[in-house]
Amino acid sequence: MNNVQPGPTDTEMNPADGAYSEVLHSFMALKRHGRPEEVAGVVAFLAGPEAAFITGSHYDVDGGFKA
Fold first, then answer.
1. Structure pTM?
2. Is residue 26 one of the residues assigned to a domain?
3. Which domain holds residue 40?
4. What separation in angstroms does the CA of 10 have from each of 20, 33, 34, 50, 66?
5. Contact 51, 45 (CB under 8 A)
6. What are the φ/ψ torsions at residue 58 (nearest 5 degrees)?
7. What's the pLDDT tens digit per position in 29-49?
8. Residue 50 falls inside a structural domain
9. Is 13 exposed, middle or buried (0-12, 13-18, 19+ CB in 10 A)?
């Protein structure tokens, strides 16, 4: 099983221009919220045949939030 760990992502519940976005961005290498399609791209790759031999991996899709 693989694990995708998204960071701050621009959604209705966590908008990129929300009250805490400036604080969140101060911790991030890329200084912006991710877009849903950026997270979805990693999920789609892992669900596809190209990733058939990838197991037990963790993917941080967080713009450097945990870097």
1. 0.88
2. yes
3. 3-61
4. 12, 6, 6, 27, 17
5. yes
6. -115, 130
7. 999 999 999 999 999 999 999
8. yes
9. exposed
The answer as to whether 39 is a domain residue is yes
Report the number of distinct structural domains present in the chain: 1
Tokens of 36: 């849903």
Residue at 67 is within a domain: no
pLDDT of residue 6: 97
Confidence grade of residue 67 (pLDDT, cut at 50, 70, 90)? confident
Query: Is-contact 27 21, C-beta < 8 A?
Result: no
Q: Measured between alpha carbons, how far is residue 19 from residues 29, 43, 48, 59 in Å?
A: 19, 28, 37, 27
- CA 63 to CA 16: how far, in whole Å? 13
- In angstroms, the CA 24 to CA 6 distance is 13
